[in-house]
Amino acid sequence: MPLSTSLFRGGVLAALCQIALAAPPVAQRSAKRSTTCRQTEVVVLGAGVAGITAAQALHNASISDFVIVDRNDYVGGRMHHTTFGDKGDGTPYVVELGANWIQGLHASDPGAPENPVWTFSKKWNVSNEYSDYDSILTYDETGANNYTDVLDEYDDASDVAVANAGTILIENLQDTSARAGFSVVGWKPKEDMHKAAVEWWNWDWDAGYSMDKSSFVFGVTGDNVTFNQFGDNDNFVIDQYGFNKWLVGEASTFLAANDSRLLLNTNVTKVAYSDSGVTAHFTDGECVEAQYAICTFALGVLQNDVVEFEPELPGWKQEAIDQFQMGTYTKIFYQFNETFWPEDTQYFLYADPARRGYYPVWQSLSTEGFFPGSNIIFATVVDEESHRIEKMSDEATMAEGLAVLRAMFPDVEVPEPTAFMYPRWTLEPWTHGSYSNWPIGMTLEKHQNLRANVDALWFAGEHTSAEYFGFLHGSWFEGREVGEKVVAMIKGNGTEMESYAVLHGTTPYSHYTDLNGWPVSSFIDFEE
Ligand SMILES: Cc1cc2nc3c(=O)[nH]c(=O)nc-3n(C[C@H](O)[C@H](O)[C@H](O)COP(=O)(O)OP(=O)(O)OC[C@H]3O[C@@H](n4cnc5c(N)ncnc54)[C@H](O)[C@@H]3O)c2cc1C
Ligand SMILES: *[C@@H]1O[C@H](CO)[C@@H](O)[C@H](O)[C@H]1NC(C)=O
Ligand SMILES: *[C@@H]1O[C@H](CO)[C@@H](O)[C@H](O)[C@H]1NC(C)=O
Ligand SMILES: *[C@@H]1O[C@H](CO)[C@@H](O)[C@H](O)[C@H]1NC(C)=O
Ligand SMILES: *[C@@H]1O[C@H](CO)[C@@H](O)[C@H](O)[C@H]1NC(C)=O
Ligand SMILES: *[C@@H]1O[C@H](CO)[C@@H](O)[C@H](O)[C@H]1NC(C)=O
Ligand SMILES: *[C@@H]1O[C@H](CO)[C@@H](O)[C@H](O)[C@H]1NC(C)=O
Ligand SMILES: *[C@@H]1O[C@H](CO)[C@@H](O)[C@H](O)[C@H]1NC(C)=O
Ligand SMILES: *[C@@H]1O[C@H](CO)[C@@H](O)[C@H](O)[C@H]1NC(C)=O
């Protein structure tokens, strides 16, 4: 279904936003229900990828009696864009604050599966460009300094470490930190800041956490499942209607404009649940009562007591929530009056002499294929640097980044930027971070406790995906799976999800298959 330009700008999106909050109450179906709350069969908490996909799974099974609730005024959640800078004609660029890459597209092997985010991006014409990680130049405090040989050194160590992690996984051996897993094969950056920068580029940039804080086995497996399966290309989205264009498009296939089942601008404060139903309470005193709820709130929301659960979530659930890690990934955008960096290069890696992860990666959008002539470049920081920088003023952060650029390009006069902006993901009450990471000591069983339903309350989101945590496609697969499980419950042949009240620290690899119905061996040896 072709969507006209205006539909995206004002139409579908605006229409989906302008929901009749005062829609006539749906007739009650059950006498024992409260008389004040709107009644529905399934309430989907969150209109990000997981929530919209779960609702679509209900729709696909001919269940139309659902309500989707989101505190924001758009469909997309962490697939979130804003306007920035100037195109030269007084109009701004659209840039992504959250998810930006389609990660893993479609492996060349015949019959290989396709990343659903790639499928939908093609279907809805989401503009994107191949990200060339070989288009990189290296810098330190002295300016340009060629240490690309260290990138090769890392790759060699990584090949051995990744194979070792596979052995640990398949033979059900003890997991360790990624730090230890890489040290064993001789990758020891110690105080070498070039090595620290290269390690950041390869690990922290993706995981959002350092090797010291990440699981070795699941950190490696997480990348393997996506990139061995869908191929290792990443495409960067530059669509001027935003990356969420595809999700808005999919939503429009089953939600009418102004559909009264989509409640945007609706802040959930409390979720009361039992084995016979769920009531979601909103800031405005309104509520929705349902037989089932699918909660897709980010891990950071669950960790930070933003929403009250009544009764409190059981210990096995809460401990899994508290252990899994919510990382932060912060993009810091600059626009200048000129492109003073090499304009044919996509990435610039900076090794600070004193501080690991200090404005380490600069990504040019002024390059062919992206926004040539835009003079836009952005830095990315994660984890502790994100927490630090997100507490600072725009002025202070802008000055730090500029000082780094002036160190990297000592031979040019780096001007003051004409535009500057960055999001503060750690402080957003609807996410409290960017995406999740697998910590040391989390087993597949404990992760399953993160996924499992508690009575009529079900969970989905990037963090509930054992295979694709941190990725958009993780949210999609989880949204579909949990949506289908709730369909089965409604149709009378469903089963509750397995959970483990007692944990023994074991991570039988076979649990991947048992718990998620996924033939793990097929991706580990996919390329063989
Ligand atoms: C900076 C950043 C970069 C990323 N880069 C990539 C990338 O390049 N590629 C990739 O694949 N993935 C990336 N990701 C991850 C990707 O964005 C997420 O995996 C995915 O968008 C999560 O979708 P979700 O539906 O699970 O959760 P969400 O998108 O968080 O959806 C949950 C919804 O719940 C709503 N909500 C929360 N609390 C409440 C409340 N109290 N009341 C009502 N509503 C509430 C929120 O508003 C939100 O819309 C990135 C994320 C970030 C933040
Ligand atoms: C996507 O673009 C193609 C080619 O420009 C066009 O034929 C098609 O209708 C577009 N699809 C949508 C959904 O806009
Ligand atoms: C619902 O069905 C449509 C049409 O077959 C399909 O494209 C979409 O992926 C399905 N959604 C889910 C969540 O299964
Ligand atoms: C950096 O050095 C490598 C050899 O280690 C060389 O292949 C590459 O071309 C050099 N890059 C630049 C930008 O000089
Ligand atoms: C990752 O994939 C490689 C290549 O297929 C494989 O050798 C390795 O065992 C895998 N490791 C893990 C932890 O999945
Ligand atoms: C949706 O609501 C808006 C504002 O109330 C209205 O202008 C528009 O016509 C509605 N669209 C449809 C398709 O009902
Ligand atoms: C949403 O609810 C939370 C508490 O549950 C509250 O702190 C916050 O202020 C509310 N936000 C809005 C916009 O009402
Ligand atoms: C950009 O601005 C600086 C002053 O801040 C100026 O010296 C420089 O010439 C300008 N560049 C262009 C291309 O206008
Ligand atoms: C449940 O029943 C439906 C038909 O009503 C069927 O399509 C589906 O496969 C069944 N699911 C399971 C898990 O048996």
UniProtKB/TrEMBL annotation:
GO function terms (MF aspect): oxidoreductase activity
One Pfam short name: Amino_oxidase
InterPro entries: Amino_oxidase, FAD/NAD-bd_sf, Flavin_monoamine_oxidase
Keyword Signal: yes
Keywords: Signal
Amine oxidase domain sequence ranges: 254-482
Keyword Oxidoreductase: no
Signal peptide (UniProt feature, chain positions): 1-22
GO biological process: polyamine catabolic process
PANTHER family cross-referenced by the UniProt entry: AMINE OXIDASE, FLAVIN MONOAMINE OXIDASE
Name this protein carries in UniProt: Amine oxidase domain-containing protein
Annotated organism of origin: Coniella lustricola
